[in-house]
Amino acid sequence: MAPSATEHKNKQDVDLTGQAIEHKLAEIAQLKQSNSSDKPQELDASKLTYEYTKSPRPVPASIEEACAGPETICTDHMITIAWDAETGWAAPELRPYGPLSLMPTASVLHYATECFEGLKVYRGVDGQLRLFRPDCNARRMLTSAVRISLPAFEPKELEKLIIALMSVDGPKWLPRDVPPDSYLYLRPTMIGTQAQLGVQAPRQALLYITACYLPRMNSVAGGMRLHTSPEDMVRAWVGGFGYAKVGANYGPSLQATLEAKQRGFHQVLWLYGPEGYCTEAGASNFFVVIKSRETGQVQLVTAPLDDRLILDGVTRRSIVQLARERLAGEVEVVERRYTIGELQEAHAEGRLVEAFAAGTAYFVAPVSLVHHRGQDIPFPMASADGGKYSLLAKSWISNIMYGREDHPWGVVVPEKAE
Ligand SMILES: *Cc1c(COP(=O)(O)O)cnc(C)c1O
């Protein structure tokens, strides 16, 4: 039975975000069933057209060389897909990488109607190209897009387009003879392009996918040093959009990060509320391993998703799942709120085991110190490379990424012959 008008209204009053995503997905399902010829088109990866570059560029010798300059180096091609509220999604185009053309009044430039994803493609030990759980990124992109009134799409189609771009550019830009542990970084992005001022949901948008080099960031010698966020700044708040990968989350955080770096730290540990809840480290999720005061049980603790303060990281989610499977009986995995004060207490009582940040860019990066209001909270590091559990998490996941372990999370990209 359809929900009554009041039930519907109440739900919307309480959970607008959840409702909005459900509505959009229902709309897509309805479109699929309708036979009307002038209905808006769905995103359809099978309509992809190919226009290859006439001026292919040289491939840098290494990630380090590629990242030495001031501009991100992208591969030869990108995929773009235009959307219009009347006609829906146009046919996706694979075309030469290059500048976009936007009117100065485009929605994204004024109202931050932008969201993005970040994932890597890896050249495995068996010579195959793999993505790591791209379905999670595609679904998260839908959540982010809907949060800022950008159009919905079937996540599977985005996943197919990501694979299509890598099928074309992977063989040249991540060749079979690259050093082990090499990767490219993929950046699916959506922007509101409607050239009309006025605070409203854009009726035109552009989804595009680029692939580029990203510096290796997981090897800070001696571990990362974090500085807690200043008292007068929050990254995300309950009812906000911390759970969405929208550009609007990042610009306002740059100042605190710059300040922390000038003081000799690597990232900001974002706290929330007067209680000082620990949320995220820079644009990575944050994990601590502590011994319970009551039972001595070793716990792997990370902030929860249910209050929608933090980003649902694919790396975070994978570590939580694998640790529950593979460390059952040894480590208790707990998703809960915890405060910086709790960490200070655990330090004073000798119960801190280790800490690490986790995300696609930094992968699993051990943390050796958190600085909070003039005081240091040091975290043990079993070796210069990290503690036992960060090293375990790193090896589990990298084994899947690089094809050392056959696992459904590692998705092989079929490569086009050059
Ligand atoms: C992207 C991001 C992460 C990490 O997510 P992954 O899917 O693991 O890369 C964590 N926190 C924030 C704020 C992010 O933007």
Describe the protein.
The protein has helices spanning 5-14, 16-33, 63-66, 107-111, 134-147, 155-173, 254-262, 314-326, 340-348, 388-401, and strands at 49-50, 77-84, 88-89, 93-96, 114-116, 119-123, 129-132, 183-192, 204-212, 224-228, 267-272, 277-281, 284-291, 298-302, 331-335, 352-359, 363-372, 375-378, 410-413. It has ten helices and 19 strands. The chain starts with a helix and ends in a 5-residue tail after the last strand. The protein is 28% helix and 26% strand. By secondary structure, it is of the alpha+beta class. Strands 1, 2, 3, 4, 5, 6, 7, 8, 9 and 19 form a ten-stranded mixed sheet that branches. Strands 10-11-12-13-16-17 form a six-stranded mixed barrel, surrounded by four helices. The longest helix has 19 residues, at 155-173. The chain folds into two domains: 40-212, D-amino Acid Aminotransferase, Chain A, domain 1; 224-401, D-amino Acid Aminotransferase, Chain A, domain 2 (Alpha-Beta Barrel), CATH 3.20.10.10. The radius of gyration is 22 Å and the shape is globular. α5 crosses α6 (155-173). The mean pLDDT is 93. The protein binds pyridoxal-5'-phosphate. Residues 118, 245, 280, 283-285, 311, 313-316, 359-360 line the site of pyridoxal-5'-phosphate.
